[in-house]
Amino acid sequence: MPRRRHRAGLLAVAACALVAGGCGRDQSVLHPESEPAREIATLFWWMLGISAVVIGGALVLLLLGWLRREQPGIPLLGGAERLTTGVVIVFGIVIPLTVNVGVFVVANFVVAQATDAPNPRTTPLTVAVVGHQWFWEVRYPGTSGAVTANELHIPAGTRVNVVATSDDVIHSFWVPQLNRKIDMIPGRTNRVLLESDHVGRYRGQCAEFCGLQHAHMRFSVTVEPPARFRAWLAEQARDRMPPRNAGARLGEGVFLDAGCASCHTIRGTTGRGEIGPDLTHVGSRDTLAALTIPNTPPELASWIRDPQHIKPGNRMPALALTGAQRAALVAYLEGLR
Ligand code: CUA
After folding, report:
1. pLDDT tens per residue, range 181-212
2. Is the CB of 209 under 6 A from ligand 1?
3. What is 103-145 written as a DSSP string?
């Protein structure tokens, strides 16, 4: 029995360590990949170190107090009371005050400045992100007009101004390896800086409980060389590729007539729904349903057949499609690159 309890304790410690570490390198604040995230991680390590020293000191004093506790019949030695007052002043007032004021100053005047959103007038790129139950709408305003979902791209070495809001409840936009989180509040816009010199893909996660599928509200940020980013953005800004064969025409017909278009937009068609993600270039994405499943024809087909099975509570209904209609729709959507 004790051994089983011991093992349960070890498992609990391992689980806590995983949670603290963000459950993986690509979503861990302890593996920063940008200057703002490095500032946050450094502050965290300093705070951890100082807290360890402070709690260590408190434990030593407790132990000393216990070892030198007053024994019945043996009075405390002369001068001990004066020493005790000094210890209380130093460890109870001076040190906590210095540490707390120091952390406050560093956090507010150094780290907060380094992680603040850039000036929207001077930053070369603004990305608008809207939180929905449960996906991320991503818009690149300005001349491009590109719209995508769940998979942001940004150019390396560029300070990107992310403007965040929500369409329904409060969400929170957080890419742990790149910067702090920012709340997405209905009717209000908040801004956060995203930037990194390191080409790569980083995971983001909604960090505010927002309903049944909060845990499955993930996204990714791909940091890529500026030239590749510009090519990607130009692709995403285009209307959909017109159907080039009978199968694709059939698929587009299903999309427009069977009900999909009342919730989804495909630019270049009459489908202008605004409830679900924009699907103009859905075939170019690696994942579906906010990084819940990979974007492959079998996964897309099972998502369309029964979305509630994969993500219970989401707003997408199962449509009454024949097998042939569904196959045509899947082929058409996967072709939208
Ligand atoms: Cu959106 Cu949690």
Report:
1. 999 999 999 999 999 999 999 999 999 999 99
2. yes
3. HHHHIIIIIHHHHSPPPTTT-SEEEEEEEETTEEEEEETTTT-
User: For residues 138 and 152, is the Cβ–Cβ distance under 8 A?
Assistant: yes
Closest CA to 282 of 227, 329, 214, 218: 329
Q: Which is the closest atom of ligand 1 to the Cα of 208?
A: 2
Nearest atom within ligand 1 for CA of residue 215: 2
Atom of ligand 1 nearest to the CA of 171: 1
Q: Is residue 9 part of a domain?
A: no
Q: How many domains does the chain have?
A: 3
pTM: predicted TM-score of the whole model, two decimal places: 0.83
Domain range enclosing 314? 246-334
214 lines ligand 1 (CB under 6 A): yes
Query: Ligand 1 centroid vs 287 CA: distance in angstroms?
Result: 18
Among residues 79, 114, 149, the one where a domain terminates is 114
Indicate whether 259 belongs to any domain: yes
Ligand 1 pocket check for 208: Cβ under 6 Å: yes
Longest alpha-carbon distance in the chain? 102
In this structure, of 10-24, 57-71, 99-113, 245-259, the range with the lowest mean pLDDT score is 10-24
Spacing, Cα 130 to ligand 1 middle (Å): 11
Contact 171 CB / ligand 1 (< 6 Å): yes
C-alpha to C-alpha distance for 125 and 142, rounded to whole angstroms: 9
Residue nearest to atom 1 of ligand 1 (CA): 171
- Residue 243 structure tokens: 């159907």
pLDDT for residue 244: 83
Ligand 1 site, residue 131, Cβ cutoff 6 A:
yes
Residue 10, classified by CB atoms within 10 Å of its CB into exposed (0-12), middle (13-18) or buried (19+), is exposed
